[in-house]
Amino acid sequence: MKAKTITKALTLALATSVSGMALAEPECTNAPKSSWKDQDMFRQSLEEQGYKIKRFEVTDTNCYEIYGWQKDGKRVEIYYNPVNGKPVKEEIDD
After folding, report:
1. Which of 9, 79, 92, 94 is deepest in the core (most CB within 10 A)?
2. Tell me, what's the pLDDT at 63?
3. Could you tell me the CA-to-CA distances from 19 to 2, 14, 23, 32, 92 in Å, in that order?
4. Is 29 helix (H, G, I), strand (E, B) or coil?
5. Nearest-angstrom CA–CA distance, 85 and 79
6. Residues 74/66, Cβ–Cβ less than 8 Å
7. What sequence ranges are listed for the domain PepSY (predicted)?
8. Terminal CA-to-CA distance of the chain, rounded, Å?
9. How many CA atoms lie within 13 A of 13 on its CB side?
10. pLDDT at position 20 over 50
11. According to the model, what pLDDT value does residue 94 have?
């Protein structure tokens, strides 16, 4: 019985650590914040492209991250490099 409990605990720990790695935020830049695009101007440029932004934040891994919708209504979560404004990781719902 003890071996089954230990096996279950190890399996759960492994599954949790693997799923945590899959959800990890990307590292976007190591550049100093003085070289980053202005947050308000960047957000405005995204809105001008048709994004409806629910939340805009700066991640611990130096990305601009948005949650919202594309102009076609698809929900998105996108990480951007704040220096050049290019997407680093995109998650788009179908």
Report:
1. 79
2. 98
3. 26, 9, 6, 31, 19
4. coil
5. 9
6. no
7. 10-91
8. 45
9. 6
10. no
11. 77
Tell me the percentage of the chain whose pLDDT exceeds 90.
Answer: 72
Report the pLDDT value the prediction gives residue 29, as an integer from 0 to 100: 97
Structure tokens belonging to residue 85: 């404004």
Residue 73 CB: number of other CB atoms within 10 A?
8
Residue bearing tokens 């230990």: 6
- Write the burial class of residue 68 (CB in 10 Å: 0-12 exposed, 13-18 middle, 19+ buried): middle
At 56, list the tokens.
Answer: 């805009």
Phi, then psi, of 59 in degrees rounded to 5? -85, 165
Q: Is the dihedral of CA 87, 49, 94, 77 positive or negative?
A: positive
Task: Output DSSP code: residue 15.
Answer: H
How is residue 3 written in tokens?
A: 């071996």
Two structure tokens written together for 37: 């695009």
CA distance 43 to 51: 9
Which two three-digit tokens encode residue 15?
A: 């599954």
